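User: For a benchmark we're assembling, each entry needs the component sequences followed by a predicted structure for the full assembly. Here are entry 17's components. Please fill in the structure.
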Amino acid sequence: MSATNTQSVSQYTKYTNRTATSRATSEAAWVRYSLIGTMLVFLSLFLFIPLASVFAEAFRKGAQTYFAAIVEPDALSAIKLTLIAAGIAVPLNLVFGVAAAWAIAKFEFKGKSFLITLIDLPFAVSPVIAGLIYVLMFGLQGWFGGWLSDNDIKIIFALPGIVLATTFVTFPFVARELIPLMQAQGKEEEEAALVLGASGWQMFWRVTLPNIKWGLLYGMILCNARAMGEFGAVSVVSGHIRGLTNTLPLHVEILYNEYNYAAAFAVASLLALLALLTLVLKSYVEWQATRNAADIEKEIKDEV
Amino acid sequence: MSIEIKNIKRNFGSFSALNNVSLNVPTGELVALLGPSGCGKTTLLRIIAGLETPDSGSIHFHGEDATDRAVREREVGFVFQHYALFRHMTVFENVAFGLRVRPKLTRPNEAEIRRRVHELLNLVQLDWLADRYPPQLSGGQRQRIALARALAVEPKVLLLDEPFGALDAKVRKDLRRWLRRLHDELHITSVFVTHDQEEALEVADRIVVMNHGIVEQIGSPQEVYDHPATPFVYQFLGNVNLFHSRVHAGVAKIGDVELALDEHHQTQDSAAVAYVRPHDIEIFLEPDGESSFKAKINYVHALGSIVRLELERYDTNTYVEAEVTRERFDTLKLNEGETVYLKPRNLRVFLQD
Amino acid sequence: MKNRPNKNTLPGFNLSLGYAILYLSLIVIIPLSATFLKAFTLNWADFWQAVASPRVVASYKLTFGASFIGALINVVFGLLTAWVLTRYHFFGKKFVDAFVDFPFALPTAVAGIALSAIYSTHGWIGSRLEPLGIHVAYTPLGVVVALTFIGLPFVVRTVQPVLEDLSAEVEEAAASLGANRWQVFYKIILPAIWPALITGFALAFARAIGEYGSVIFIAGNMPMVSEITPLIIITKLEQYDYAGATAVAAVMLVISFILLFAINGFQWWSNRRLGNNR
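Assistant: Structure for entry 17:
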């Protein structure tokens, strides 16, 4: 009697250890395989085939046409403009994200949740409107249009407008990543640094920043992907001047509308590669961050 | 370095965490701030460290007003409840942190830093862990590293927030003794916060008992345990029996029993509560005049050299806890269900308004 | 006593909050407010003319209708994807999991031309649908396809963590009480994940109504048929009809903000109801 009892207990633990396949909480094999199959078909239609088609179309007329489309002067200047715009917008939002997260996560003040909602606002705004608001501010008909043209300053249909629109659409990325992370970390380590004699900046560079580096990087990667790929907002403020105010996505559009499909897809393939690189980096950072989180979890478990 | 705390007040919204607290910590003493959670002890410790600002009142270090001195200039060492070790730094770098962030003029050179850190790691007996990261340490090890880190800056005052709170019972006892020995060696003015009366009684030179943001009593462990100043201290430190009574002209009347008191001779017929420790309840098999209660033994817990008895009074059906020595227990040959007579001694009576 | 307004001893509160608010105002708040101010300068008749002309109304119907259908498709297949990714093991699962975020990472213009290439009559998929009489590219159906693509990660990423946190014990308890697998799903799992499903739906929907880049290539952009509202704004801008563009934009903005506050409010409510503080 007692022998059979122990046996059933050990069997039970074996089953609960692999819940995913335990009989009580899993489906029949045919259900599983048809669900997996349906998912793969759906994802193929919407993700894999479109991605594959970008490269297929890009190389349709051979590698030579492909590379010719990429090294063409207008394409190169579009690449340069895209890098410049992202190179300004991403650091701006990075600094903002750290500042906002510091205030929100480490201090108590009135209107905090309202501030968080305001930070999210740009995600709720259509990219087209994100462009439009700057046209209304700085365009010829805009609030400051007269003054700007009197002083010969160009914002709309020029680099500053493109940077502004890019900054707007990528505004929340870093802050959104950092706020929950820094809230979870609390402020004891910073306090410890201060008690040990660190100045405010020493505390920030030596304690805060190393603790948030993965979250910061994660936000930066997403921010950068969107900044380099933004189309709608930039399209409104750019003016589409070839070789001057065209970013890579706008260059793709122009080529496509000129029925120069091979070139359009060649340039598009660069952006698709950027997207793939983004996914790889993102997965790597997630992996690193969960490793850190596992460490912290272990730390907490040991304390109890 | 001595610490004088004068009339500190601190509110969080409508909640009064500290209400007019004054306290002196003489140089070289190890003082415990003892009280239940929410009594304001941690807030007081953080105010001493400069991590929290009081609404009013002042703090003096060695006679000098330090109320508005910034945290980093106070020269205090602070050990956080959850240690707050820098998780991205090795143990060595954690301990070295306070030296490395000094201004160039007073910063020791690399060789000196190495020497000092290893000296401290040896002091806490963890030199072999220098290259580990905090998540790789046990709770007790983290605690000692946090202490070494706090000592690295040669603080004038050491402050510890629930230093043993997050550890399991066995490690806690070891570390307690170890901290006491360390203090005897270093003689650095230290204040620690605890909610564990046993911990405070065993480790501290002096205990500050706090409740609801006020100081209930300050004294040596002996004083606060044997002569509690308030009903709260009586109940918080050790087990105690409560007897509702009336006091008139130096006599306490509990039920039909009358007991002579050393105090309250001028009191005219006032309601009062009398406190008696379990070991101050004497047990007899025969009544002792007017000054003993008749009670039934409900349970006997005979573990070790002390026997604990749970008794029920016949007159009020309330419970009384008593402790007798094994010898006395054997002499009386007590059994569960038996009727005995109780005589409280060393009563402490607090009048009720 | 002395005035000590800031009780927190960590440094940098005034600096960081001040900078955050200043930057937020310059980049977001002031330009957005300027748009509403501009919209208010129109008289009512002009405003109504701009936002309620038949062509604009047709674009609302298309935009909201297609966004709604796209988000619904994502609820079904997003739940399925999240389910498979949290419950089953199969070759290449990690890869598929990472790839779900592809629509977030891929520039919308690239998505647009890729989708129109494969769903056009000569494309890989379009040519196979052609004999069945189904036309995707340059029809409202194409708009749905594009909006499904860009909204795909939202439902998966909101439902996935909730499914992961669901304790196996609860399901085992239900099974031990005699529930079959379908009953467990319907009575135990679905009630636990529906707030996440609704949040994911709302996020996908909100993203879709503002979407521009991925849609315009595949939509064909025929007035009254396959023209989305963001394109109307662009068209008005290109005709230097700033007032008209602003009026339509103001309507879109109000709807977006209502959605944003509704989503935030809903999340706050469901977190409280389910008793987790996150």
